[in-house]
């Protein structure tokens, strides 16, 4: 004579005293309250996270807008002479100019000595000029 597990628990529950049933109900209520509290805290944390992300996005958009406005304002304030200034023409590229550049690198400084720092600066300047051409 096998009974289903839910029938056994039902019979056990019926055999409990009133005090035991009351304790079980209180325990169940407590467990449910803890679970509801946990779910509510999780939902609140998610909502807070979403609000913070939205606020950060709004702030980033505002900073970008302010930066673009500042750039536009600084361009307006820029003197007209700088705007209308033509770009300098690059000298024609031929072997004589390239040779002059390499010779220029090897020239000693005014004091007669080749300073490694000065040479690095000259090389860097030449690279920048080459990029501009």
Provide structural commentary.
This protein is an all-alpha fold. 79% of the residues lie in helices and 0% in strands. The radius of gyration is 41 Å and the shape is rod-shaped. 0% of the residues are buried. The model has no long low-confidence stretch (mean pLDDT 78).
Structure described in brief:
The protein is mostly helical and 133 residues long. 79% of the residues lie in helices and 0% in strands. The protein has helices at 5-15, 18-77, 80-84, 95-106, 116-132.
Features:
mainly alpha; 133 residues; 5 helices
**On the 0-100 scale, what is the average pLDDT?**
78
Major beta sheet, specifics? none
| Number of helices in the DSSP assignment | 5
Order of helices and strands: HHHHH
Topology diagram in text:
Elements (H helix, E strand, L loop, with lengths): L4 H11 L2 H60 L2 H5 L10 H12 L9 H17 L1
